[in-house]
Write a structure and sequence with these properties.
Elements lengths: L3 E4 L3 H8 L10 E4 L4 E8 L2 E9 L17 E3 L10 H6 L1 E4 L3 E4 L11 E5 L6 E10 L5 E11 L10 E3 L1 E2 L1 H7 L7 H6 L9 E5 L31 H6 L3
Parallel strand pairs: 4-10, 5-10
Antiparallel strand pairs: 1-2, 1-7, 3-4, 3-6, 6-9, 7-8, 8-13, 9-10, 9-12, 10-11
Length: 242
């Protein structure tokens, strides 16, 4: 899954990476959490736009958001089948503006520190997303979004079995092309990122508190554990048997 991420590049860096015309000015964020406003890139009529949305997907058919669970991730394996995501996968795909994300070791102790995962080349990390506009009974509207997830690659499998779908530049173009790329082809883009794309390092346990948001969160606390050894892949394991 993906429950926290960070976006620390400059506005110009994100704009150049994704090619939208908007010129927003926004600060670096080191601890983006669910229900907070998030910056995403959408494509409408072939034109890319910078948009702020709520991180927490609400399908258009939901009548009372208080009766609907907080949905921050969408599993790509079932997105085309679930009523919540089916139309969004076809018509409303987006990219979350991010430079990396945090992940906690599954089953680890309470209060543990997360690991920070970044791109090894330092480029922005294109996280695939789905979005939807929800309308209340009084006519007000809110744009909401979720990060698409897939199975973890070998680097992350030692921490968690899921990871966000990270797109290549070519994948970004296809993901945002709702005119020529259908839901099936779009879903095929959301696969575990190559291990060489990513760097993984322990971060500060202060990430656990959403009120903390500073560059120090990406630095290792002195008493935190080292990076876990990645699990061997199934192919490697099978190779040892022959």
């Amino acid at each position: 899954m993906c429950g926290r991420f960070f976006a620390t590049s400059s506005p110009d860096t994100f704009r150049e990476a994704y090619g939208y015309d908007d010129r927003p000015n926004f600060p670096a964020r080191h601890n983006v959490a669910p229900t907070q406003p998030v910056a995403v890139v959408t494509s409408e009529h072939g034109r890319r736009r910078f948009v702020l949305m709520r991180w927490g997907f609400l399908p258009a058919w939901v009548k009372d958001p208080d009766d609907f669970p907080l949905v921050i991730n969408a599993r790509i394996e079932t997105a085309s089948e679930k009523p919540s995501f089916r139309n969004a996968l076809r018509y409303r795909r987006c990219i979350f503006l991010a430079d990396g994300f945090y992940e906690w070791r599954r089953g680890g102790p309470r209060g543990q520190a997360p690991y920070a995962i970044r791109r090894a080349d330092g480029r922005p990390m294109a996280l695939a997303g789905l979005w939807e506009t929800w309308s209340s009974r009084d006519g007000s509207e809110i744009d909401t979004a979720a990060i698409v997830t897939c199975g973890a690659n070998g680097l992350l499998a030692g921490i968690h079995e899921r990871m966000p779908a990270i797109l290549s530049p070519e994948g970004v173009n296809a993901w945002l092309d709702m005119r020529d790329v259908d839901a099936g082809r779009a879903a095929a883009l959301c696969r575990p990122a190559p291990e060489e794309w990513l760097d993984l390092a322990p971060a500060s346990r202060r990430v656990n508190d959403v009120r903390n948001d500073g560059a120090e969160l990406l630095r290792l606390d002195e008493d935190e554990p080292v990076v876990p050894k990645p699990l061997e892949s199934k192919v490697e394991a099978q190779g040892r048997l022959f």
